[in-house]
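Sequence in, structure out. Go.
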Amino acid sequence: PNLTSPGDIAITRPGTLVLAGASTVDGTISVTAADVTIIDLVSVGGLGNAGTFVANGGNIHFLEAGRVENSGGDINLVAASGAISALNTASWTTLTAGGVSGGQVEFAAHDSSALSADVTSLGGAVTNGNLTLASPSGLTVDRLSADNIAITAAGDVIQTGPIAGRNLTVASTVGAVSLTNSGNDVDSVAIAN
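Output:
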């Protein structure tokens, strides 16, 4: 669905949902299904409106040209018993969030997950697996936890919240890496910049 006037989109399905795009001019987008697959642009419009995607029985997948953009608010991804994966053709635009106070992406996944994100800050947890993050710019880590965490960014990588995991690998091609939170709890750290 694509709304051309203000309003919210709320979609709830008991099984698998394949979302071939959606947009609001000024409204939230909320999607809940057992499995969620996004295959084209989902665009949340307006200031302060969130995009929320919940796979309550499985996975959230970004395939083909699937991506979520929200220039005025936050993006929330929840795959409580599955993974979040970005196996799409989009280049660095799987998740794009912005807004007056910057865009925040929150995620929660059970299994190993991979995200490409162009966001101000990102926080979340993988309870039973690894996390791979890629950003075409800098990244502020709000908090992260997973078994093994790999972050690649083309800008500064800083943090406002703790990082917890066995192994943390951070690579910044054009920028500094500053991970100074006293709550960090990792067994091994490798930094390349």
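Check: The radius of gyration is 16 Å. The chain has no helices and 20 strands.
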